[in-house]
Specification:
Helix 1 packs antiparallel against helix 10, helix 17 packs across helix 20 and helix 22 crosses helix 23. The chain is built from 25 helices and 13 strands. The longest helix has 18 residues. By secondary structure, the chain is an alpha/beta fold. It has a five-stranded antiparallel beta sheet with strand order 7-8-11-12-13. The protein has a four-stranded parallel beta sheet with strand order 2-3-1-4, with helices on both faces. The protein has a two-stranded antiparallel ribbon with strand order 5-6. The protein starts with a helix and ends with a strand. This is DNA phosphorothioation-dependent restriction protein DptF. InterPro entries: Dnd_assoc_3 (IPR017647), P-loop_NTPase (IPR027417). It comes from Bacteroides mediterraneensis.
């Protein structure tokens, strides 16, 4: 018998569920239970109060599909005294087959034209996606009649490293700068990141309360004699462990930073469904699918969800180390779960039925030893999160220093860029202020002298909101006719980190890193190559190619 009650409860989280799409009008009982307060809710209430104070105006709630705009509006409707007509949720809809969504929007926003904006007593919260907002402010008629809205809206497109602007009557709240996790500068942990929001969602799912539909379904299934070895029952018990939930949160954050994931609440709920319910659950067979249907396997090897696909790259089995090799050799040669492999506290919390079944597989004459080894190894990692990537740990440490305006960290990253510029063109030449020209041969490499003047880094980080920051920052070098910028994010840092460790970029590889390639070419344009060029031979001996006072080319 399958755990059908629990499966039905988790299906509410799936992208395929009707509950995954909000109408923005009212909360269902399900929405009410799953609601988790977010900082952006308080921000919206503050902006609404500001509009109340001046007598009228408009608030642009800007984001992307699935980030919670409709859910937020449904919530605010319940607790505010603004009328229903003060909320416009579906900015992609048209009121007539003969009208576009933009035409419909312009009709709905008549009260907020420049000519009416400071006369109206109407109030509106407009939830709109970034793409639709861009199309709206590019409309010729809208540009002419709604200049104040256009100017405010452009603030989120022009420069994402500066706070979004607002006026007394036009406010803007972008979801794009509201991270789904926090970066705590006061933390003494190696990884000063966490997510109250993600923890709260999972906390609601495993809460042992009678109003929790998941826990209620779990108890109903057990009361109906569903096997305690059922994978969904075991997964629910695993998710109930704080250590497991912590690993899930920290792994998701690592995936966000390493792979530029933009995770919406809707996608995270679908992710939870994907790591809890085995895709072939209805045809599940214990002997064949036991390991594959459990949370450690679904987390690190599943591909049903965009988050799962990213986390697959973080599978601990894909990261080789001496410690990993030692663990795997012990697991592979054991006849049961090795004594002391798990902490005593973990053994007490882990489902006993799962541990017994693992030992049964161990005792099966080694037939499933490879599957068993992989599963137990992943289970241990799930119980004690740690990143396998030194680059990731280094980047987080750098980001913390930049957010704290640590000049030593700024100097470190500028030094790293300076050192790796020649290596981008396959050279170990390390003399400062020397830029490799894009003319590199096997025996000779050409460099030009250029004085680099790094400027102080000003990242986007709010000291008042730990989830309001960007996972990147702009570096800048000063020149007489304008600065040259380089946007540093994890992907670029990872590339430079590897170059600094000794890797040389091959000619076809450096063209792939367009950001850094463009940056170096901008530096080359600043060099005075007509006056002086340094030629470095393969034996590292330097030659100078220069122009004499009489125009002759001299090689010294």
């Amino acid at each position: 018998m399958l755990a059908l009650h629990l499966k039905e409860a988790f299906f509410h989280l799936s992208q395929n569920s009707i509950d995954s799409v909000q109408c923005g009008k009212r909360f269902s009982e399900w929405d009410e239970y799953m609601h988790v307060d977010r900082p952006i809710e308080d921000k919206l209430i503050d902006k609404m109060n500001e509009i109340d104070d001046v007598g009228g105006g408009i608030i642009l709630l800007v984001g992307s599909a699935g980030d919670g705009k409709s859910h937020l509006i449904s919530r605010i409707r319940q607790i505010s005294d603004w009328k229903d007509e003060s909320f416009y949720n579906d900015a992609t809809a048209s009121s007539s087959p003969k009208k576009t969504a933009i035409d419909t929007l312009k009709e709905a926003l008549v009260e907020y034209k420049d000519s009416n904006l400071y006369l109206t007593n109407k109030k509106l919260v407009l939830a709109i996606n970034l793409g639709k907002l861009n199309a709206l402010i590019e409309d010729i008629e809208f540009k002419a009649e709604y200049k104040e809205i256009v100017n405010v809206a452009w603030s989120i497109f022009n420069d994402d490293a500066t706070p979004s602007s607002s006026t007394s009557r036009v406010k803007i709240i972008p979801f794009s700068k509201e991270q789904i996790f926090e970066f705590d500068l006061s933390s003494t942990e190696a990884l000063p990141v966490n997510s109250n929001f993600l923890h709260s969602i999972m906390g609601k799912i495993v809460a042992r309360t009678e109003n929790n539909p998941f826990y209620k379904a779990y108890k109903e299934d057990l009361a109906e004699d569903v096997s305690p070895k059922d994978p969904l029952i075991l997964n629910y018990q695993l998710l109930s462990m704080p250590e497991v939930r912590n690993t899930i949160v920290m792994t998701v954050i690592e995936a966000i930073i390493c792979y530029r994931l933009i995770i919406t609440p809707r996608e995270f709920l679908d992710f939870l469904y994907s790591i809890m319910v085995y895709p072939q659950y209805d045809s599940y067979k214990e002997k064949v699918n036991f390991y594959e249907a459990l949370l450690p396997s679904l987390l690190y090897t599943g591909n049903e969800n965009v988050i799962q696909k990213a986390i697959c790259k973080l599978d601990p089995l894909k990261h080789s180390s001496t410690d990993h090799d030692s663990q795997l050799s012990v697991l592979f040669t054991s006849y049961s779960i090795p004594v002391s492999y798990f902490n005593v506290s973990h053994i007490k919390e882990l489902p006993i039925e799962m541990l017994n079944r693992i030992n049964d597989f161990y005792a099966n004459n080694g037939r499933d030893i490879e599957r068993t080894t992989k599963f137990v190894f992943r289970l241990k990692h799930l119980l004690c999160y740690h990143s396998e990537s030194k680059v990731y740990l280094s980047f987080i440490d750098l980001l913390k220093g930049i957010f704290k305006q640590d000049i030593h960290k700024m100097q470190d990253i500028y030094d790293l860029v300076s050192k790796t510029i020649p290596r981008h063109y396959s050279s170990y030449y390390e003399k400062s202020n020397m830029i490799p020209l894009n003319i590199q041969g096997g025996r000779y490499r050409l460099f030009a002298n250029l004085l680099l003047k790094p400027q102080k880094i000003t990242p986007y980080y709010s000291p008042f909101e730990k989830n309001n920051f960007l996972i990147k920052f702009n570096m800048s070098w000063k020149f007489a006719n304008g600065n040259i910028l380089l946007c540093m994010d994890y992907q670029l840092y990872s590339y430079l980190y590897e170059l600094n460790r000794g890797k040389l970029s091959l000619s076809y590889e450096n063209e792939k890193n367009l950001i850094f390639n463009t940056f170096v070419k901008q530096l080359i344009e600043k060099c005075d190559c007509e006056q002086d060029i340094t030629v470095v031979r393969s034996d590292t001996k330097e030659l100078r190619l220069s122009e004499s006072a009489f125009g002759n080319i001299e090689l010294q």
